[in-house]
Here is the input.
Amino acid sequence: MPITRRAALLSAAALPLARPALSQSGDPFKVGLIVPMTGPSASTGRQIDAAVKAWLRANPAPVAGRRIEVVLRDDTGTAPDVTRRLAQEMAVRERVRALAGFGLTPLALAAAPIATEAKLPMIVMAAGASVIPSRSPFIVRTSFTLPQATRPIATWAAANGIRTAATLVSDFAPGLDAERAFKEAFGAAGGRVSLELRSPLRNPDYAPFLQRVRDARPDALFIFVPSGEGSALIKQFNERGLREAGIRLIGTGDVLDDDLLNDMGDGVIGAVTSHHYSTAHDSPENAAFRDAFRAVAPDMRPNFMAVGGWDGMHLLAEALRRTNGDPDGTKLVDAMKGLAWTSPRGPMSIDPATRDVVQDVYIRRTERRDGQLWNIEFDRVQAVKDAA
Ligand code: PHB
Here is the structure.
């Protein structure tokens, strides 16, 4: 009987994912980058891939004698089984020394057991549900978490005349995290959530949800939808006349994603969001990042997914430097714990207890400047942890 692809994979699954003995110093350090390059979250993959290429171009020198080499795989963003299989192939066939990427929470969760079994650092550059790092001691996150990004806008809203709010989130783990964090923080600051709505993750029609919000007439609508979805929702927000009805738009920065923002139209001017990264962030590190990104992707604006990819590469390289080039997964993760650096987003570090990202979260207002739309930061909460 011919060995089918599936049978071959199943037998690969039965193999212990043992690492070979210490590889020779001077061997390349291989990183398996798994992101959606096609499908509904393709913008996440394109952003991270471009940022990783930009980082490699800007940092060509070997690290502790090793050249960093990245192997890219498209998991299409919709099937956790595919992400898991690709992670396994990277570990067994490609013999990568670290896994990276992970565009959505369900995909990161699917790959977590592979990281544990193969003892490979797994750098989560995109996904944002709180639970992720608890699923493997080898996971370290350089993106953000939804509670981290949500609480500052909830507190800001309550302090700025918003008494009632509706929430509208995508119905999957990060959306539920955002919904809960908003309700808690807004309530604690004296606000009241009057309507809670969840839209389907796949092929959502936002019109009926927005109509319900319009009818309920809250002071503001808080929104979380994943990167890439913002345009469809904002189009409906504009068409349904929520702004004219006096309902203010607030949310996490995912909604007013820099990748899409410029095409959203003037209806988003004045919206206030909180997030860890804006392309407009004013710092020398961000200017260098934007230049490096432009060199590989001249037609794209780097968004918060891109900065997660850039910092993930920095984290891997810094850990490898600290182990003097030893690629042992446990040693690399240990070296990542507590690392702190100035990212294009601002100061950030890895919490040594949780392996999660600690970072400043900025309050931003959408403005038109020099003919383009930007999220302009005007306040910040420093060193925010996931459950802050
Ligand atoms: C996630 O799946 O965790 C996720 C995806 C896109 C976002 C945020 C979170 O913008």
Q: What stands out?
A: The longest helix spans residues 304-322. The chain has a mean pLDDT of 94.
